[in-house]
User: Fold this.
Amino acid sequence: MAKIDRGTALVTGASSGIGYAAAKALQAAGFDVFGTSRHAGAEGPEGVTMLTCDVTDDSSVAALVEEVMDDAGRIDLLVNNAGVGLFGGAEESSVAQARALFDVNMFGVIRMTNAVLPIMRRQKSGRIINLSSAHGFIPAPYFALYAATKHAVEGYSQSLDHELRTLGIRVTLVEPAYTRTSFDGNLIKPDRSLDAYASALAGVTVAVEDAIRKGDTPETVAETIVKAATDSEPKLRYPAGKLARQVSLLRRFVPAAAFDKSLRKMLRLPV
Assistant:
């Protein structure tokens, strides 16, 4: 049976975790996949062309897109997956640290999107998938700045989708909950530490580590990314995994006070 040709996909942050699984799954689904890593020589899935890109650098992004176009001649799908986490009390991070986080998680999305949109507009077709998080629509104690970046991605994506629909381009959000990756091991720590938060932070740390151990696999999230990429009538949001779907429903239908209490209990914070 001939392989389906779904066009060219570009996946940022494809050397590990969700990005790696997504690149592999998209390649299996029929896309010609280019993946990126900040580090030269990073290995990706078999059949995926790996390129170097720093999403915080305009010239690096421009060079990446030019290289993909020279090779493939088009870009049909952009998956904005590259991102970093920051764990700690919001007050414990300086404005400079918050700005650096936004430069990757939010402005990196904008840089990549702005770089591919002229191509997609000429093609009169294309799809952009932005990796959000359950933290993009619920409170996230001790992930406040990370959650702020994901809330920003949500607002940007929703608005951008309305702007682009008439041009044949759609924007969707994939929203994982806790996922079994190295995310927790690679979390950025605040650039200052305050004793006032130490006790509560210790309890939240245990709760988060436990949730990640029990979380969805990267492959589960990758399946959702493939669905978002191939649906003939794409939705705006795709919760990825059982927990993400549950949280999404609870956030919509459970009274605010009850949701607040449940969240604090889950994170081992005083109710």
Remarks:
- The mean pLDDT is 94.
